[in-house]
Amino acid sequence: MTTFKSKGKLLITGEYVVLDGAKSLAIPTKYGQSLEVEEDNSNTLSWKSYDEKGNVWFENSFTLDNGEILKTIDNDNDVSTRLKQIIDTAQQLNPNFLKNEKGHKVSTHLEFNKSWGLGTSSTLINNIAQWANINAYQLLEKTFGGSGYDIACAQHNTPITFQLDKNNQPLVTPIDFNPSFKDQLYFVYLNQKQNSRDGIKAYKSLNKVSNAVINDINAITEETIKTTSLATFESLLTEHENIIGKLLNQEPVKSKLFRDFNGCVKSLGAWGGDFVLATSPTNPKDYFKSKGLDIVIPYSTMILSQ
């Protein structure tokens, strides 16, 4: 049996504008996803996906003919269609992938709730890319799309800066980001799973990002990484929220939902759902619970320690 593992992801700065070349701060999470592969003589590709509680949330089998997936055996649904697309694309990138093999039993194991938006898709893409011995960024581009920062997180054990160059190629730099005030940082789940592909599509339809905006976000990212002051960190995040809010014509999450919160609240990734980053001198669990939000995760619990 062969096992592949990938880390989950959180985008601290640069949401949306990372698609246009802005430098972003991205952080791999402790929670990820593994993929286990075992060869057999079944002439099928049998697939089981387990959630963080060990329950099967997807299961199907595909017939194989010299490595080519011909059809699903058990049921044909959106997940099966998407999985077949990923496998087919992996075979386009590496024609030897699955060829002349008799069959495989594959299982995936999530370490986080798949509604959290920590990278169910990106960790799968990176694991399949490892299995197929192909470039994960290329596989992502031909399937889900996006900037690729989530693939970079899947492949790293430390915070990174991520940026697309003029040729849309990823520039990934591992960094030392271990703020002295990390015990005052919390991730809060908004209970509204966002489809990143929809968010990307909506952002691109705006078609109005300027070089000035990119430069402002780049500067905020650099200062966010360097600052040792929580007050400065909060000021930078607030400025970032205002810039992206104006760009999207949306109200920042704090003024919209948490106006009375004693601290900073910043959207992460796709605005309107998934996690936000909150700053607070004490655990703000009671405050957010009063708002109907029960998932409040301290920074050190979510993020790989340095």
From TrEMBL:
Superkingdom, taxonomy of origin: Bacteria
Q: What's one GO MF term for it?
A: kinase activity
Q: What InterPro entries does this protein map onto?
A: GHMP_GYDIA-like, Ribosomal_Su5_D2-typ_SF, Ribsml_uS5_D2-typ_fold_subgr
Ordered alphabetically, the record's keywords are: Kinase, Transferase
Report the protein name in the record.
Answer: GYDIA family GHMP kinase
